Amino acid sequence: MAQWPTLEIAKLIVGVLTPLSVALLGWLFSRQLKRLDLSNWTNQKLIEKRLAIYDDIAPKLNQLLCFFTWVGYWKTISPADAIHAKRDLDRTLNIYRHVFEAEVYKTYQAYIHVLFETYTGAGHDARLRALVQGPDGDRRTDSAYAWSEAWNPCFSEPRNAAGKDQVLATYKDLMAALTRSLGVSTPERAKAPVTPEPAPRPAPASGQTPA
Predict the structure, then answer these.
(1) Whole-number pLDDT of residue 31
(2) Average model confidence (pLDDT) for the chain?
(3) Is the pTM of this model over 0.85?
(4) Can you give the pLDDT at residue 32?
């Protein structure tokens, strides 16, 4: 029996392996595309869930901002409304805490602890770190709702009232974290322009009088 030349054997091997290689590469490429599609689908669903949660909590976060800074529609927000908003926010953010990055929950806790005095005793609601009466008005007489004396214990001591700047700063930090979690970049805070120092005047030449 005649032996096959080495060249013919090589051609035969190449002829067999080439279709197999093409098929293997095609399978690997298809598998990678499916993984990519699954990853994109998962990310899309995650963003959709985050957006749904954002639509639920953003109005309540803003409601608290108005109540504590005496702006917007603060006259229509009763102390009971503010406490109820916190309770709803706590429930939602604790349930979906791990849907967001850790930064969101951290900034939420910072915001809430500025607004409320927590851990006031078993069975007691957190107290509002706000004033009943202050430079911006009197909640008992200036509000659109009827004041109830039962709300007086809902407030912390006046010395514990949160400052407007602190409330606004923690609110902005939280909203920026939520925005980033939706894949939207937030502009960096503008830096104050640096005024260059004037160049030193050259020393007068010998024999000249300075101007």
Answers:
(1) 66
(2) 82
(3) no
(4) 66
Please say whether the beta carbons of 108 and 175 come within 8 A. no
Which stretches of 42-125 are assigned E, i.e. beta strand?
Answer: 116-117
Pick from 185, 189, 167, 173: which is nearest to 69 by CA?
A: 167
As beta bridge partners, residue 116 has 128
The strand pairing partners of 127, in sequence order, are: 117
Q: What is the mean pLDDT of residues 47-64?
A: 95
To 5 degrees, how large is the angle CA 172–CA 117–CA 108?
Answer: 30
Per-residue pLDDT of 122-150, as tens digits, reads 767 899 999 999 999 999 999 999 999 99
The angle at the Cα of 148, spanning 142 to 153, to the nearest 5 degrees, equals: 105
Q: And the tokens for 105?
A: 């929950």
Of 21, 110, 99, nearest to 54 (Cα)? 99
Q: Which of 114, 156, 134 is nearest to 74 (CA)?
A: 134
